[in-house]
Design brief:
The chain has 410 residues and is α+β, with helices and mostly antiparallel strands. The protein has 14 helices and 13 strands.
Length: 410
């Protein structure tokens, strides 16, 4: 207790957790009936413990189970380490006699295993317990899990050009707040703690896809289940091989160093009306709105470029003000002058089906600013990405984007 819980009197501090284990039938004490409890009955008095000096240990059947099933013992020990002794102190395994049991990669015994698949959330709950319905919650081992369902109400998904994940926070309607699942996420971000990421593709099954760590928290505009605009949290998750930080890639460690416990608030950079005509302010022209949004995007790009250690999130998490500028500039139509698709087709929400793309890809060093971006219908976007004449189309679209940008600023 003194070494790992930083308490002054380890003997006294151990009395309450020691007695809680007894009350939970996880620990047995000889001569328990001879101990005197404090006035509130929460723990034995120090005097009676000194007088009786009782022996104690795990319940006999639990002890025999763990002794005869070392894999289960290793799983239990690894779960306790991740939950209560994280990051792993250098000498803990030796001090607790766990070195032989967990030698090497201490996190390997944790269950469920990566890639385990279940029909639905109820099947996960039956196998591993925990919070049955929450999209952000803990399994029975107390380790946080987040669930992403392609058929669900949240627009989660991989960030383009990277395997990092954009995960929408907890709360279906109204502005999201740091409560419930979001509070757990904020704690994990501040402490750099790993979590389990579960994913269910459309028509598929839930699988434990990866361990992940939160590298960034952003607040953005989104549409809730009630079809109204609201402020929501976007958690940027970086996949990692295991919960052991010694296995994490350097770009993940760099991102944690830069953005730990930081909130990036994008809701002042743009407005719902910049992308939704139904919410548009009538006092501001499209030209003035474009100037405002383009200036904000340029300033954001400059600020990111001045960072001493630009992270993966800096390079790939797209600036919503830049996207909003291009949507405003497009007036709801595909900006490819040779478009043969459906340039004015609408979504079920009444918004244009447009995909804002970078002419010079972000992954190849392209800037995240409107003059390097163009609004395309899905057909033209596919031609730019996969078409046999894509290089020629890219060159043409680069000239179009620069011309439309210049015209919008005039």
């Amino acid at each position: 207790m003194e070494k790992y819980a930083q308490v002054e009197d380890g003997v006294d501090a151990a009395r309450y957790p020691f007695w809680a284990l007894v009350r939970d039938d996880l620990w047995t004490v000889k001569h328990e009936e001879e101990l005197t409890l404090t006035s509130l009955g929460r723990r034995p008095t120090v005097e009676s413990l000194n007088r009786v000096n009782p022996g104690g240990g795990l319940c006999e059947e639990d002890y025999e189970l763990l002794r005869s099933h070392p894999d289960e013992a290793a799983e239990a020990a690894a779960g306790l380490i991740l939950r209560y002794f994280y990051p792993l102190p250098e000498s803990l395994l030796e001090d607790f006699g766990l070195h032989d049991l967990l030698a090497g990669r201490w996190a390997d015994p944790l269950r469920p295993l990566l890639g385990e698949t279940f029909k639905d959330r109820d099947a996960i709950w039956r196998s591993y317990g925990g919070q049955k319905m929450a999209g952000i919650g803990c399994l029975n081992d107390g380790i946080l899990s987040v669930f992403s369902d392609d058929k669900g109400p949240y627009a989660d998904g991989r960030i383009p050009d990277t395997n990092w994940i954009a995960y929408v926070g907890d709360g279906l309607s109204g502005d999201q707040t740091i409560t419930d699942g979001n509070a757990l996420m904020a704690m994990h971000q501040a402490e750099g703690r790993p979590l389990r990421y579960w994913h269910k593709p459309y028509g598929g099954q839930f699988s434990f896809e990866t361990w992940a760590v939160i590298t960034q928290r952003r607040r953005r505009w989104g549409i809730g289940e009630d079809k109204k605009w609201r402020r929501e949290f976007l958690w940027v998750l970086a996949p990692v091989p295991s919960p052991d930080p010694d296995t994490w890639p350097s770009d993940v460690l760099d991102a944690l160093e830069v953005d730990r416990d930081v909130l990036h608030d994008d809701t002042s950079d743009y407005r719902p009306g910049d992308v939704d005509p139904a919410e548009r302010d009538t006092f501001e022209s499209d030209k003035d709105a474009y100037r405002r949004l383009a200036a904000r995007a340029e300033a954001n790009a400059k600020r990111r470029g001045e960072r001493k250690k630009p992270t993966q999130a800096d390079r790939y998490v797209r600036d919503p003000s830049a996207r909003a500028a291009v949507i405003r500039r497009s007036k709801g139509s595909c900006e490819n002058p040779d478009c043969d698709g459906h340039p004015k087709e609408r979504t079920t929400a009444g918004l244009p089906i447009l995909q804002v793309d970078h002419v010079h890809d972000l992954g190849k060093g392209g800037p995240d600013i409107p003059r390097n971006m163009i609004a395309l219908c899905p057909n033209c976007h596919a031609l730019k990405t996969y078409g046999e004449n894509r290089e020629r189309l890219r060159r043409a679209l680069k000239a179009v984007a620069e011309r439309l940008h210049a015209q919008a600023l005039c």
